[in-house]
Amino acid sequence: MYFKKEFLDKLKDGKKIVFFTGAGISAESGISTFRGKDGIWNKMKPEELANFDAFIRNPDLVWEWYQHRRNIVNNALPNAGHTAIAELEKFYEVSVVTQNIDNLHRRAGSTKIFELHGNIERNFCIECHTFYNSPELETTNTVPKCKKCGGLIRPDVVWFGEMLPQDEFSGGEKAAEWSDICFVVGTSAVVYPAAHIPISAKRAGSYLVEINIEPTELSRYTDYSWFGKAGEILPKILEEVKKFKN
User: Fold this and answer.
1) In Å, how far are 20, 131, 145, 173 from 151, measured between CA atoms?
2) How do residues 163-182 score in pLDDT, each as one tens digit?
3) What residue segments make up the domains of the chain, in order of their start?
């Protein structure tokens, strides 16, 4: 795989790298994307399940659907793209800013992660906000009740109409702005406010690199773009880094 000299020079000189990731990298692990021809929302309307009002109207239905999604996530494994990102921590200060809720970056070994849309492996009580990990609740397809106050327990994911967790967003934005290179991986970067992250990086002077299976609206702003699978491209980048960082 050919890499232009400008990009290789950035890799040689860079110290801080950010990966802004979306559903495309998870799709390579067998987790369906939300948009696209085989997306989840082609099968189910988001307003029927992924919002608070829907949960209050029919909590068991929403809980059962998220249990189904957890089963898919639990059976998925981090792919070569995830593991390459984690391994790059040996050579750089790496931050992952992800729109994904599947926890695959952490399972691959990444240590500094900003989860913009939450994490499907966590849950919390809507009344007292006590947190519960999914293994504690994985056997039930009816919505569980909080052991402390009896409130309904919901997935710790950002639903339609809800704000992003401010600490995660601000932390991710700062990491992007301070980065030498910002990789945008597996996302069309059109869902705001998350899509502000790569734009903020670019405006702050970061070298913006896109890895996606097809061109996106962001492509015209990037310094360098590859169109292909993250699980194939990122390991090749890691190989190049090892040549001059070891």
Assistant:
1) 35, 12, 5, 34
2) 999 999 999 999 999 999 99
3) 1-31+78-117+164-246, 33-75+120-157
